[in-house]
Amino acid sequence: MAFSMAAMMTASAVPFFFAYGRDSRRPAATAMVVLVYAATWALIGFALDYVMGMVMMPSSFLIAAGAVAMAVVYALTPWGRWARDRCRGMAQREPRKSRLRDTLADGAGYTAYCIACSAGMMPVLVVGGMSNALVVVAGAAAMLLYKITPWPVPALSHSR
Fold first, then answer.
1. Cβ atoms of residues 80 and 117 within 8 Å
2. What one-character DSSP code corresponds to residue 124?
3. What angle separates helix 78-90 from helix 61-76, to the nearest 10 degrees?
4. What does pLDDT average to over the chain?
5. What spatial distance separates the first Cα and last Cα of the chain, rounded to whole Å?
6. Is 159 exposed, middle or buried (0-12, 13-18, 19+ CB in 10 A)?
7. Helix or strand (DSSP H, E) at 65
8. Radius of gyration of the chain (CA)
């Protein structure tokens, strides 16, 4: 599950990685940001796999529907919208200077916003089965669309 989680979430962050690489023009810094991001999501996947191995969760439509409902509610909360705005905003800003500390901070900052942004979707993906390649591909596509599209609709979003 660790590899699946890292692959899925890294694919959903491609717009940020391209923007970071374009603006920094430092391939080593971009590789470091990708490594920080992927390693963090691999650790999250490992932890989720460990927890899921300890808990026997029955599979049912009701549990899956509850996970989807929880994801929608989370996306509409102020915290969910704030995290998504920050996650999207990181892909549009210029990176800091070329110091290693700044590169690590950029990678860790984007990763933290992405974790907060994606928290509502994680139960759906876990319930769906992260060991299933179709779930991983569908999850990557859903996370990418979630991060780059203006949903919830702007009328529901908070004003700045």
1. yes
2. H
3. 70
4. 77
5. 38
6. exposed
7. helix 61-76
8. 16
Tell me 129's DSSP state.
-
What is d(CA 124, CA 64) in angstroms, rounded to the nearest whole number?
Answer: 7
Q: Using CA atoms, how far apart are residues 61 and 125, in angstroms rounded to an integer? A: 14
> Tokens for 34?
């990708």
Contact (Cβ atoms closer than 8 angstroms) between residue 154 and residue 26: no
Please give the structure tokens belonging to residue 31. Answer: 């590789």
For the record, the structure tokens of 32 come out as 């470091």
Query: In terms of Cα–Cα distance, which of 151, 150, 127 is closest to 139?
Result: 127
Are 120 and 71 a contacting pair, CB within 8 Å? yes
pLDDT for 79-116, tens place per residue? 888 888 887 777 666 655 556 677 778 788 888 888 88
Dihedral Cα 32, 94, 17, 137, nearest 10 deg: 130
Please tell me the distance from the alpha carbon of residue 132 to that of residue 29, in angstroms, as a whole number.
32
CA pair distance 102, 30, nearest whole angstrom: 12
